[in-house]
């Protein structure tokens, strides 16, 4: 009986010794794993383990969670660059730049940024915690970019500590003009575009007319557009192209406008140029065809012949002559002259209101009335430019 008690006592001593050793191992393991997700699963073990072991878990779990709270994204060390990306990083204005990064440990599903320079944006793609920023920088300088990894998409859930990327952007080259604007002669009402082609980064444009900067955003693009030019748009144009590294000015070009109702405009529309020429051979010069409103490329001599008749008005006989005119020919002048003897003509200018003469223009007809007091009387219509 005594020997049985001794054996039982020895067994209990050995059991107690082994149990204490096991508890020491378990406690060491918990402290080692306190920064990992394993502790979450260990919290379920009290239901299955002995009450003494459960008490140890309840004591060590708060310690584990308190220490782990210093890392917002559990199990993640933070954001790190992915080779060949380095920190600090270097970039140049006007040149493409990419910087790749990821989180260590647990994988972030989204990122947030603060301090990105102009021209640099997040790619918006996160694959296996790997993502990137990139673009073409437009402003030189040193930038501190803060990057935070998030547990869930949409920048939700726990997060990593902020990681700071130092990005040094150096200046680029001044602009270079590859193609200068081209001037010309245009008809009033025509759409006109002046354009410049320039190379460089962060380019800004400013068009000038006769040496004065034009106002409005339309004059601050590489193309200066006129939907419908007017005579006031005529002038000398140039464009200044600039960036942070310098300014260059284009060649100056001349814009000329043929006003509507001008001979130059009419000639351009009909493809003729010499006022004294008669391309259709109908006996009417281009100037005459312009003044009467006929086509210089289609024979129409009859349109240039005045219509003459005699009329009696209030008992008095009048010579009436009607001459076709172009109401849009604002720079042409039709003069009327009279004589009574063609053998020795002495043409006299006929003026409205003199010696009973009446001259009036309505729409496309010039009407002349003179008293028919002589046996013979002749009228002549001549066309001149004002």
Give an overview of the whole structure.
By secondary structure, the protein is an alpha+beta fold. It has four domains: 13-68, no CATH class; 79-170, Immunoglobulin-like; 176-258, Sandwich (Immunoglobulin-like), CATH 2.60.40; 286-385, Immunoglobulin-like (Sandwich). It has helices spanning 2-33, 38-42, 51-68, 263-270, 286-292; strands spanning 79-81, 89-92, 97-103, 110-114, 120-122, 131-135, 141-152, 156-159, 163-170, 176-179, 184-187, 192-195, 197-199, 204-209, 212-213, 223-226, 235-243, 246-249, 253-258, 307-313, 316-324, 332-339, 348-349, 358-362, 365-371, 378-385. The strands form seven sheets. Strands 11, 14, 15, 17, 18 and 19 form a six-stranded mixed beta sheet that branches. Strands 2, 4, 7, 8 and 9 form a five-stranded mixed beta sheet that branches. A four-stranded antiparallel beta sheet has the order 1-3-6-5, with no helix packed on it. The longest helix has 32 residues, at 2-33. It is rod-shaped. The chain starts with a helix and ends with a strand. Residues 11-15 and 56-71 have low confidence and may be disordered.
């Amino acid at each position: 009986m005594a020997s049985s008690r001794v054996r039982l006592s020895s067994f209990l001593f050995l059991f107690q010794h082994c149990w204490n050793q096991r508890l020491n191992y378990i406690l060491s393991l918990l402290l080692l794993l306190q920064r990992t997700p394993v502790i979450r699963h260990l919290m379920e073990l009290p239901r299955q383990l002995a009450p003494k072991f459960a008490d140890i878990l309840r004591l060590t779990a708060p310690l584990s969670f308190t220490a782990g709270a210093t890392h917002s994204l559990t199990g993640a060390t933070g954001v790190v660059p992915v080779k060949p990306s380095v920190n600090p990083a270097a970039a140049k204005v006007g040149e493409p730049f990419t910087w790749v990064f990821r989180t260590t440990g647990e994988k972030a599903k989204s990122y947030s940024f603060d301090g990105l320079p102009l021209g640099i944006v997040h790619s918006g793609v996160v694959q296996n915690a790997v993502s990137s920023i990139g673009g073409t920088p437009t402003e030189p300088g040193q930038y501190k970019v803060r990057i935070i990894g998030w547990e869930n998409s949409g920048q939700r859930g726990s997060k990593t500590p902020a990681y700071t990327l130092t990005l040094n952007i150096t200046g680029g080259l001044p602009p270079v003009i590859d193609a200068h604007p081209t001037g010309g002669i245009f008809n009033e009402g025509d759409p006109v575009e002046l354009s410049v082609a320039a190379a460089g980064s962060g380019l800004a444009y400013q068009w000038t007319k006769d040496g004065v900067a034009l106002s409005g955003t339309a004059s601050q693009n590489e193309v200066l557009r006129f939907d419908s030019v007017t005579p006031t748009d005529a002038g000398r144009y140039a464009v200044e192209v600039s960036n942070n590294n310098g300014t260059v000015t284009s060649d100056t070009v001349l814009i000329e406008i043929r006003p509507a109702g001008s001979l130059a405009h009419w000639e351009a529309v009909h493809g003729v140029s010499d006022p004294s020429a008669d391309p259709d051979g109908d006996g009417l010069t281009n100037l005459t065809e312009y003044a009467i409103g006929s086509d210089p490329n289609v024979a129409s001599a009859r349109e240039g012949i005045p219509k003459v008749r005699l009329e009696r008005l209030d008992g008095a006989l009048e010579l009436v002559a009607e001459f076709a005119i172009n109401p849009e020919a604002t720079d042409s002048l039709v003069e009327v002259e009279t004589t009574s003897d063609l053998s020795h003509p002495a043409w006299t200018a006929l003026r409205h209101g003199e010696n009973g003469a009446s001259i009036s223009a309505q729409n496309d007809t010039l009407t002349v009335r003179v008293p028919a007091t002589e046996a013979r009387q002749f009228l002549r219509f001549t066309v001149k430019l004002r």
